[in-house]
Amino acid sequence: MEIFIIMFVGLIVLLAIGVPVAFAMIASSALVLAYARGLEAIPMEMIAQRTLYGVNSFTLLAIPAFLLIGRLMNAAGISDRVFDIARTMVGHFKGGLGHVNVVASMLFAGMSGSAVADAGGLGSVEIKAMEDDGYPTGFSAAVTASSATIGPIIPPSIPAVIYGALANASIASIFLASIIPGLFMGLGLMIMIAIISHRRGYPTRARARLGEFISALSRGMLPMLTPLIIIVGILSGIFTPTEASVVALLYCMIISFMVYRSISFRDFLGILKATAIDTAALLFIIAGSALYSWVLARYQVTALVADFLLATVTDPLALLLILALFILLIGLFIDSVPALFLLTPLLVPVVVQYGIDPVHFGVVMIFTLMIGLITPPVGTVLFTIQKITNMSFSDLVRETIPFYIPLFAVLLIITCFPSIVMFLPNLVFN
Question: Quick check: pTM over 0.90?
């Protein structure tokens, strides 16, 4: 138990005082090795080997590809095209542009796979359009922040790739398992938007004519094929999820440079530089996570946690609910990606002992961490939206509170009813 306290509490303390995630993981792992072997006997060669081993993975090649796809889509003006399609589909409902906001995020999710990319790229378009249509800035910002969390749920998803690599789970299965929860998420947010809009008397747009829908669809059809290429290619066995990310990237480059011609060579160099920086930061975290996971296994920390839970919790559903609450608490203070690296190697071996499918647990974990992105004090999406709107953080949080209701409702549903999550993977792979 001393090892667990040193590893987990030590990591939390290091993160709380501002130590970068990768360094915190490496330092807490080294601290355990020093405690177990003595300060003079810390195996520096093993630390170097395990951190290097962490990034030596073919699967992880998908991460820079998806990051680059998201940046290309934003720079190429795809956000406006996606928003126009969504506006012709649901803009005539009560609180029309709020629904448009959600549907656009669902469509854009299939291209970026990132909540922050959605909030930073599509968010500015959505908020401006809603404000121009008479919606208050607070409501517009809250809807945008909430809908951005759909990005990492509906495939492709960067967190799903990371979880699959860490948990040794099928990424294709996680992609499929995330589709229905993502649709439920969008539907729940739209119901809340309709309720608030009716109470506050927000405006309604005229129903789009068929010609307007066809025009918007023709402008945005090519980027909309990106998720289709990924999913169909993976399920048909033509390529692996990693290869699919590269094929999708090539497709996005073709439509950005040769069809829309909206990105200059100088712009592309800037996009590459930004993507390289993001990728390096992520891979550094992955390297630190590999060492952290090895120490967890080496000193049987996961076995200790499993034994403790087995002695106190016998029902798998009760365990899932407890872990969902635990993950949510972690997500309040740690961003979603570092939290995945921290929790996956610790919790997956435990849930497997309870007979819980790691694919189902992965969807629950990712969904829970997405709620953390719009929850203070460390809500990355909230800070992104605050930067766009210049709202005070407290006002933004206050406006976002009603949208926690549908998100927690969907989380409860997918946690208690695994058959909903596993329906598509079982249908396709069994």
Answer: no
pLDDT per residue over 170-207, tens digit each? 888 998 999 999 999 999 999 999 999 888 888 777 77
**CB contact set of 318 (below 8 Å; sequence gap of 6+):** none
* Domain ranges across the chain: 61-293+306-429
Q: How far apart are CA 250 and CA 220, in angstroms?
A: 17
pLDDT in tens, 218-230: 877 787 777 778 7
